[in-house]
Amino acid sequence: MAIATVNPYTGETERTFEPHDDAEVERRIASAQAGFEALRSTTFAQRAQWMRRAAELLEGDVDALARLITIEMGRPIKGARAEVLKSAKGMRYYADNAETFLAPEPLSDPSAVGASAAGTRYAPIGVVLAVMPWNYPLWQVLRFAAPALMAGNAGLLKHASNVPQSALYLDTLFERAGFPVGAFRTLLIPASGVERVLRDPRVKAATLTGSEPAGRSLASIAGSEVKHVVLELGGSDPFVVMPSADIEKASSVAVTARNQNNGQSCIAAKRFIVHTDVYEEFVEKFRAKVAALTVGDPLEESTDVGPVATESGRDELAEQVEDAVSKGATLVTGGRIPDRAGWFYEPTVLADITPDMRLYLEEAFGPVASVYRVADREEALRIANGTTFGLSSSVWTNDPEEEEWFIQNLDAGAVFVNGMTASYPELPFGGVKDSGVGRELAAAGIREFCNLKTVWKG
């Protein structure tokens, strides 16, 4: 894929960029290593000052950045603006909490290990490579970069090839805020260039958000180099609706949960598993609200759903729907590629999904929802857990015992009860099964790329 900004609303190429050659990649890795050596000796207070300044710069650029996000990947402008502000919030969260999260932890009874004092400390590990996707071009990166830099590490970013201007903005942000030169650097390289960077001995670990094949490839390389990885590889999140739920609220939240960011979110609800007692009511409300969404120019404030980010992604979505319909799925609403410029796909709801259809197991990365009718909670759980993914989940019930049962038994990195799945700086984020390994955000996220060092004193 060319490194270029291609506007998904028009299909037109806005700007193209030459990949960094080997010499430039070497220069940037060396710069990152030098940035790490400078940053590791600074105090938490100094890093926090710089991080807060970076957040201020981000907020000062909110309108221009929101427009850039929308042009590069098609996110409606309201959501793009919210992404910028959420990123700044996450940066301040780590500025405020990093020192507490990484404080030394003394052993309460050092005599048990024959010491006068003992415990653990967290130390930075060095340069960390981040391989990031296009769907949240700022938030995905900054939820890694903020904790990594506050821990004293340096970051190298290989961003998705269709958001190069977002990547280049981030290349200068931290230096502008006062961080040492090289503490964060962007690499404009194709996917084929990642292996060389990851095998460089100066690069100590990697994090990737993206597809399962990309994650397996990165993990394989890192494993051969004995380097730590954090992987977030997508999901096909269940949205379970039981008879005691508030159906009006659940159906409204379901529309946002599926169609946020044009349906292109790893933790978007994708499979709606509805008890038969409330199935008809839920599906009719859901259908009507999905059909009422405003589809159009993502730069317009009134737009709810814009184009899919890439032409290939739109075509893949259409093929998944066509496969399901050809095998007997019921098209409740949508299901067409509109006759207009850009990479649009109608917000779609499908019912009567069966195991022989691609959508039963595959992630639909766009505004397509699959609805399942179930007879009881056991069947709901079987379908919810019946994929290789396990990122997040949402359960709608007002029965306390049923709530606890789902929390205990859902195979997912998170369970949201009577609410939409989301990521928050304050809560760990990550999945199980093929959705990945490791955690981002909260205390767990900053500790992933630290050396947990045992200290013993005689």
UniProtKB/TrEMBL annotation:
SUPFAM superfamilies with a match to the protein in the record: ALDH-like
Coiled coil (residue ranges): none
CDD domains linked: ALDH_SSADH1_GabD1
A Pfam entry, by short name: Aldedh
Superkingdom in the source lineage: Bacteria
Keywords: NADP, Oxidoreductase
Domain Aldehyde dehydrogenase: 3-455
Family label: Belongs to the aldehyde dehydrogenase family.
PANTHER family: SUCCINATE SEMIALDEHYDE DEHYDROGENASE [NAD(P)+] SAD
Name assigned to this protein: Succinate-semialdehyde dehydrogenase
Native source species: Microbacterium album
